[in-house]
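Morning. Coffee machine broken again, so started the prediction first thing and wrote up yesterday's gels while waiting. Chain of 42 residues, entered below exactly as on the submission form.
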Amino acid sequence: MLEVVRYLTGAVGPSGFGSKSTAEQVTEAGAYTLRGITAIIT
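Came back before lunch.
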């Protein structure tokens, strides 16, 4: 139950980002290198 509340409030997780973080915020922070990664979104 606590995990649901944390998700809904956008609480920051171990990565430093929460459910309210945008893709731009994550990539600008340089936390993840996406070179060589292929994502298939359906």
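The chain is about 35% helix and 0% strand. Going to sketch it on the whiteboard this afternoon.
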